[in-house]
Amino acid sequence: MEPAFGEVNQLGGVFVNGRPLPNAIRLRIVELAQLGIRPCDISRQLRVSHGCVSKILARYNETGSILPGAIGGSKPRVTTPTVVKHIRTYKQRDPGIFAWEIRDRLLADGVCDKYNVPSVSSISRILRNKIGNLSQQSHYEAHKQHHPPPQPALPYNHIYSYPSPIAAGTKMSAPPGMPAIPGTMAMPRTWPSSHSVTDILGIRSIIEQANDGSLYHSPKIEEWTLSRSNFQPSAQHIVNGLDKSSLDQEAKYSQTANGLPAVSSFVSASSMAPYPTPAQVSPYMTYSAAASSGYVAGHGWQPAGANPLSPHNCDIPAALAFKGMSSAREEGSKTNNQNASSSSRPYPSSQTQATTAHMLNIVHRPSGKHCLNKT
DNA sequence: CTCGTGACGGTTGAA
DNA sequence: TGTTCAACCGTCACG
To answer: Which segments show compositional bias classed as Low complexity (predicted)?
Structure first.
């Protein structure tokens, strides 16, 4: 179940077992690595296990994405998009066809072999759930011509493919297959798979959130969301303005922060640079502290540090951020449709958002952004 | 000391 | 509706 509090690792960092680190932390890891800081130092500074640092960096190097993979769900084993397509075709050609006939045809046509051919019941379910009553659907579709039928047409494979076309473009500042970025506005709202959705949404949220932060929030992209929303320190309400459900995950971390000794020590420790650090890093120490506090101390609803996360956003190299975003692949996408239902998870709703962000070592720049001194 | 790796206990969500 | 199960997570310990 949902831990009321996170756990503390050997380094004093807070984490939620089974859940990904916040993107802010993931991003910090990558940024620090790109500055030439050794993984072991990153691990200590951010208080993330070196195994995790290693994993995140490895993934980043491989895919260009800092984002965690898609958690949960299940890959269709037999009812692949191709199979569904064929089933639909068979059904369209012969509306009266029986499931067992479809099964036979799938075998006969070589769409499936005996090992992966769907069971009759599976086919029936596909007909019922994915294809539906074709005869009815025909007029139904007449009404919503431009709205593709939910799942079926959608390539699960595409969704699950790892690395995705996008990710495959590793480390490209302008990843191929990224029309999604400029085109996000036009993104079909009914994107079939939640797995894919967040991606897009995530991208969108970053790009567009400044203008409209209220849409398309996925719990799994909260960090980006938050980052964005926290740009304005004094506008902590933005967080509330955002789909609060999208903060769920962060909320966990936030909760962790509350009254958890490890938290304060974590924050302070970060800012005191427990380890000798290269001069270039020192700014990041503070920065890390802030970012980390954000990670730990959270946002939005949490009583004390209002906008801890913000700092890093100002400093995220656009290319890097984009890189991470763009290569988001399918991961984390599935949560989108949870926005409405995420309320099922009880998090403190009381959000006395004190405007005392400074508690968390956030440096307020004249510009108004609170970025940490990075230069 | 650093870092890659696998076991582990955990969460998630489509089927 | 509830369960199953395979995906992912980060930590930890080992080498």
So the answer is: 341-350
